[in-house]
């Protein structure tokens, strides 16, 4: 959910899917709920988020009611294509979802479950900053059916947190984890590596601090300097240095070593889980090309080969829904070639890998060279899986397979 929306076809005012859309009832359906509010804007972040001074008429206290209008719209649109599927995963992302009162999050969750009666093993994830979770919040969320808390730790080193403009204290993570554990929630920790000025020793300290919390799941993402962010401007002015690619590669390898030794296994290039049951099923649906509806300003959805996205500003989003209009800003019907490209791009990053039959025509002729270069495992004719070296160069592998 970056700084600019794609250029594509306009979306109809009523939100209807393209004529002739056929939904496969066996394809899982999920819901992403974007909560676009933050106390401060982190210097590296280009997500569609807003601090209190940037809302221009939109009100946080009205947000749950506004988003529930889109839930009703989605139910109407999807019911026009056939029987409604149950929602199998719900993900509250942001922004900082836990800036809203827990009761507001619960009302939105209840609204989604009422519109799309959920599966028996519904997975519900809430992202949270460490300093926005206490025992009361965790208990309220757990009682309402939330199953996972994804805590934005990012680093355990104060100078790295300062470079990233993170507002929480490093010791707040343990407090948030304890609250989640006491409430019976699964715990995922999110880390970022490769910040300007971060050393390999700093990164080891963050990993060891995270592992001391015994998380069920951990995500580790290399810092990407996005155009238009405060971090990019500081680097352009010479105040900070660009992240070093070689150091980032060493950091990834260190993470994989330590996490594997601690009993977490990688299942996607940037994600590790203690058991298969601890994997994030919602994100897995993205990587498999399943269906989801993205609710909220700037949120993206995908239904049966049509990708669509909402207007970005909370005030514009609220205004369209108040007028009975879809908040969608645009959409794209994916061509067969685009779907093949996305399948390669996403599935090759997973531990299960990619079926060779899903490759573009002729790409299987390139597999022996990728094996020789140590980028994919020796294969039978039915599966393509990355080696650890291949994980470091996943984008390069994708470029070769889709050229």
From TrEMBL:
Residues 23-265 form the Radical SAM core domain. It comes from Microbacterium invictum. Belongs to the anaerobic coproporphyrinogen-III oxidase family. HemW subfamily. Probably acts as a heme chaperone, transferring heme to an unknown acceptor. Binds one molecule of heme per monomer, possibly covalently. Binds 1 [4Fe-4S] cluster. The cluster is coordinated with 3 cysteines and an exchangeable S-adenosyl-L-methionine. Keywords: 4Fe-4S, Chaperone, Cytoplasm, Heme, Iron, Iron-sulfur, Metal-binding, S-adenosyl-L-methionine. Its main location: cytoplasm. This is Heme chaperone HemW. It holds the Pfam family Radical_SAM. It is found in: Cytoplasm. InterPro entries: Aldolase_TIM, Coproporphyrinogen-III_oxidase, Elp3/MiaA/NifB-like_rSAM, HemW-like, rSAM, rSAM_sf. The lineage of its organism: Bacteria, Bacillati, Actinomycetota, Actinomycetes, Micrococcales.
């Amino acid at each position: 959910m970056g700084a600019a929306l794609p250029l594509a076809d306009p979306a109809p005012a009523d939100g209807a899917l393209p004529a002739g859309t056929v939904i496969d009832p066996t394809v899982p359906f999920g819901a992403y709920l974007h909560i676009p509010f933050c106390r401060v804007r982190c210097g590296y972040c280009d997500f569609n988020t807003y601090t209190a001074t940037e809302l221009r008429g939109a009100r946080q206290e009205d947000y749950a009611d506004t988003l529930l209008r889109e839930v009703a719209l989605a139910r109407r649109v999807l019911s026009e294509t056939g029987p409604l599927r149950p929602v199998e995963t719900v993900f509250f992302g942001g922004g900082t979802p836990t800036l809203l009162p827990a009761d507001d999050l619960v009302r939105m969750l209840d609204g989604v479950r009422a519109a799309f009666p959920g599966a028996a093993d519904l997975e519900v994830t809430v992202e949270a900053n460490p300093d926005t979770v206490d025992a009361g919040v965790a208990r309220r969320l757990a009682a309402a059916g939330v199953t996972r808390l994804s805590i934005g730790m990012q680093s355990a080193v104060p100078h790295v947190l300062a470079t990233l403009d993170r507002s929480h204290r490093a010791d707040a993570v343990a407090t948030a984890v304890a609250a989640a554990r006491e409430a019976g929630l699964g715990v995922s920790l999110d880390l970022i590596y490769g910040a300007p000025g971060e050393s390999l020793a700093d990164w080891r300290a963050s990993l060891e601090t995270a592992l001391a919390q015994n998380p069920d799941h951990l995500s580790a993402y290399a810092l990407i300097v996005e155009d238009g962010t405060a971090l990019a401007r500081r680097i352009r002015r010479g105040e900070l240095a660009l992240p070093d690619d070689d150091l980032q590669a060493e950091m990834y390898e260190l993470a994989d070593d330590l996490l594997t030794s601690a009993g977490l296994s990688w299942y996607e290039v940037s994600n590790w889980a203690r058991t298969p049951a601890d994997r994030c099923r919602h994100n897995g649906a993205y990587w498999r090309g399943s269906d989801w509806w993205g609710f909220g300003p700037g949120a993206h959805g995908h239904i049966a080969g049509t990708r669509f996205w909402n207007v970005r500003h909370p005030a514009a989003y609220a205004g369209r829904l108040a007028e009975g209009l879809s908040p969608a800003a645009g959409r794209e019907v994916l061509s067969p070639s685009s779907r093949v490209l996305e399948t390669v791009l996403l599935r090759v990053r997973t531990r299960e890998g990619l079926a060779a039959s899903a490759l573009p025509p002729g790409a299987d002729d390139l597999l022996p060279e990728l094996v020789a270069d140590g980028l994919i495992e020796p294969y039978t004719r039915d599966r393509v899986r990355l080696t650890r070296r291949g994980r470091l160069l996943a984008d390069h592998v994708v470029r070769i397979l889709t050229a």
